[in-house]
């Protein structure tokens, strides 16, 4: 238990006005606050209707309240939830009353989750999963985040860490036993076999990691081609709503250069390079700079042309699909996929009428499916997790390599491996990291 002397509160639901708003409190002051507002503490963990009153006894709102005494609560502390009507007036009144209570203050971003973490309710990988779940845009991202939140990586890391510590103990026992001279091989061999097996498991998870990380970030598709080819029009078709300004004059696509799409559950960001051009407006310059950076790292380029002669400007090393646009102007043209060569398919579309779009979309979904592959087994979703797991694997490898030089050296490497896993779980040495991680969260979470 990690007691905090301050009680925190926050509006945990969305922006008012809304049908219902949830104000959440955590800390020693949650119970007294509930008592002050409702007259008495409700029974634990039961939704209870209550009239909330201010300090003069005037009613604030007819509410439903919940009382979760610690440690059996989300944060491990006393937690109260006030489900009120989601008007600005109700929330403002409630918040100003709470702010005036002793040792009570508005919560920082992610502070509820941070307290849950500090009280051992969740490990750091689970906190990251929670953050991903809140920010998930597509169904596949949601499922992946939920796996993380359920502690799949955390459970594995804990088990590896325990086993590494035990293997290290075996080796150290051997060192004590041998006293001087070499540790008998029959003591070292089983420990080494154990470490090799752990290393294989970790390497397997590392090998499968790329895709889970990708699913979190999404796939980037760039629409490029000569001016007036119809890039912005295609962007609008893909987004099925008016996202970019389409105009016959070059240079008019200004603001929206990126749009996030949900393609069959896969997150895909489409960048319209028509928006990438010289500009004197500093804000726009920054947008253009970012779009250019992202376009350079595109996973797929759709090269849009009006005719076959148009020159291709290669902007990435990645795959390029040719898309011939404006077929509505060419009476004899067929629409859709006109060459199915998997490396560089050619499509014929009319971005304006939508002809041929279904083939192109279907191909994009297929591309996304291949790109993300099976993410069901991916456990690593972040750079932080990958780095620490790689460090663990490297230390295990070194421990195997140095054991002939001295068992103490091997045991030391095992300690380094266990430490890296401890940091993955957030159990050691992460104070500086916590601010960074929890800052990403929403207020009230
Ligand atoms: P960008 O400069 O590549 O972004 O091109 P725009 O999307 O702004 O399109 C340039 C012009 O071509 C606009 O007048 C569009 O309406 C027109 N256009 C785009 N796609 C089509 C199409 O499929 N058929 C026809 N006929 N015109 C199109």
Structure explained in plain terms:
The protein has helices spanning 30-38, 88-99, 111-118, 124-135, 139-149, 152-178, 185-207, 209-217, 231-239, 282-296, 357-372, 383-402, 407-425, 431-439, and strands spanning 7-11, 18-26, 48-53, 59-68, 79-86, 104-106, 219-224, 258-263, 266-272, 300-305, 320-324, 336-339, 346-348. The chain has 445 residues and is of the alpha/beta class. A 7-stranded mixed beta sheet has the order 8-9-7-10-11-13-12, sandwiched between helices. Helix 7 (185-207) runs antiparallel to helix 12. The protein is flat and about 80 Å long. Residues 244-255 have low confidence and may be disordered. Bound molecules: guanosine-5'-diphosphate. Guanosine-5'-diphosphate (GDP) binds at residues 227-233, 246-248, 250, 253, 274, 325-326, 328-329, 350-352.
Topology of this structure?
Layout: E1 7-11, E2 18-26, H1 30-38, E3 48-53, E4 59-68, E5 79-86, H2 88-99, E6 104-106, H3 111-118, H4 124-135, H5 139-149, H6 152-178, H7 185-207, H8 209-217, E7 219-224, H9 231-239, E8 258-263, E9 266-272, H10 282-296, E10 300-305, E11 320-324, E12 336-339, E13 346-348, H11 357-372, H12 383-402, H13 407-425, H14 431-439
Parallel strand pairs: 1-6, 7-9, 7-10, 10-11, 11-13
Antiparallel strand pairs: 1-2, 2-5, 3-4, 4-5, 8-9, 12-13
Helix pairs in contact: 4-5, 6-7, 6-13, 7-12, 12-13
The site of guanosine-5'-diphosphate has 20 residues, from α9.
């Amino acid at each position: 238990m990690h007691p905090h002397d301050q009680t925190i509160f926050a509006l945990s639901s969305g922006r008012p006005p809304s049908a219902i708003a949830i104000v959440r409190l955590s800390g020693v002051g949650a119970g007294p606050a509930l008592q002050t507002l409702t007259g008495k503490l409700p029974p634990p963990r039961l939704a209870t209707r209550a009239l909330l009153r201010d300090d003069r006894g005037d009613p604030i709102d007819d509410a439903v309240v919940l009382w979760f005494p610690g440690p059996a609560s989300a944060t491990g502390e006393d937690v109260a939830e006030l489900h009120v009507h989601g008007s600005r007036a109700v929330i403002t009144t409630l918040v100003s009353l709470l702010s005036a209570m002793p040792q009570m203050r508005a919560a920082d971003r992610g502070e509820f989750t941070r307290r849950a973490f500090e009280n051992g309710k969740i490990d750091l990988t689970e906190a990251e999963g929670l953050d991903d779940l809140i920010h998930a845009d597509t169904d596949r991202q949601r499922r992946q985040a939920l796996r993380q939140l359920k502690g799949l990586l955390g459970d594995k890391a804990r088990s590896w860490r325990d086993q590494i510590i035990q293997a290290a103990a075996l080796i150290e026992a051997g060192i004590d036993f041998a006293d001087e001279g070499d540790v008998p091989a029959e003591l070292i061999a089983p420990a080494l076999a154990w470490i090799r097996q752990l290393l294989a498991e970790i390497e397997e998870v590392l090998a499968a990691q790329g895709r889970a990380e990708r699913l979190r970030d999404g796939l980037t598709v760039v629409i490029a081609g000569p001016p007036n080819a119809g890039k912005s029009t295609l962007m609008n078709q893909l987004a099925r709503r008016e996202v970019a300004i389409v105009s016959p004059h070059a240079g008019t696509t200004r603001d929206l250069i990126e749009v996030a799409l949900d393609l069959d559950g896969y997150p895909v960001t489409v960048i319209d390079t028509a928006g990438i051009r010289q500009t004197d407006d500093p804000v726009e310059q920054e947008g253009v700079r970012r779009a250019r950076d992202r376009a350079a790292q595109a996973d797929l380029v759709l090269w849009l042309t009006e005719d076959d002669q148009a020159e291709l400007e290669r902007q990435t090393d990645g795959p390029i699909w040719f898309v011939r646009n404006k077929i509505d102007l060419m009476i004899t043209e067929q629409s859709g996929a006109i060459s199915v060569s998997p490396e560089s398919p050619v499509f014929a579309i009319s971005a304006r009428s939508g002809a041929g779009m279904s083939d192109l979309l279907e191909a994009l979904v297929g591309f996304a499916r291949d790109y993300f592959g099976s993410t069901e087994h991916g456990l690593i979703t972040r750079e932080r997790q990958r780095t620490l797991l790689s460090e663990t694997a490297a230390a295990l490898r070194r421990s195997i390599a140095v054991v002939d030089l001295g068992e103490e050296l091997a045991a030391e490497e095992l300690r380094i491996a266990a430490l890296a896993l401890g940091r993955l779980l957030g159990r050691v040495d992460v104070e500086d990291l916590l601010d960074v991680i929890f800052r990403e969260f929403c207020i009230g979470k």
